[in-house]
Amino acid sequence: MSNADSNPASVIGQTKDLLETVYKRILEHYGIHYQEKANMTKLLSQVNDVLGLTPNKQDRLNSLGLISAKILGNLNQVANGMNELRNQFGRGHGRGHTQEGAVVVPRRYANLAVGSASVLINFLTETVQRVDQCKASEQIDQDFGN
């Protein structure tokens, strides 16, 4: 965020790169293969699948499941929006001053990108911890014949 005032487009690009890194690390953690040049949407889809976060995996017979399905769908949109924001306004493609997309991005968009990504990353890492705890608990039950 220290660059948000002087170079918000760079912050947006770095935030998108961080999200992509988190997705890939989660997939690697679970031994899931991904295409090295897979787009953000595909990577997030794989992450959601391995963590059981797809909206269709939620129990829609109760209020929590219905609400979770909505929120998870919106999280996907946040991630997709981050990708679009970076592609349009980020510095990942080395735009010159006269090229399309070389507009000055207001700091508030860098703040939005970082804030949204932070929430998503925290949620994903907490979910990884929970999934790992559940798997460990299942292994303990199997070890003791439960």
Structure description:
This protein has helices at residues 8-29, 40-51, 63-89, 107-143. Helix 1 (8-29) packs across helix 2 (40-51) and helix 2 (40-51) runs antiparallel to helix 3. The model has no long low-confidence stretch (mean pLDDT 81). It has one domain (8-143). The longest helix is centred in the C-terminal third of the chain and has 37 residues, at 107-143. The protein has 146 residues and is an all-alpha fold. The protein is globular.
Summarize the structure.
The chain has 146 residues and is mainly alpha-helical. 67% of the residues lie in helices and 0% in strands.
Secondary structure layout plus pairing:
Blueprint lengths: L7 H22 L10 H12 L11 H27 L17 H37 L3
What keywords describe this structure?
single chain, 146 residues, mainly alpha
Strands, count: 0
Low-confidence stretches: none
Mean pLDDT: 81
Number of domains: 1
Helix/strand class: mainly alpha
Quaternary organization = single chain
Q: Work out the strand percent.
A: under 5%
**Largest beta-sheet details:** none
- Specify the number of helices: 4
**N→C terminal distance:** 50 Å
Percentage of residues assigned to helices: 55-70%
| Global outline | globular
Order of helices and strands: HHHH
The Cα radius of gyration reads 18 Å
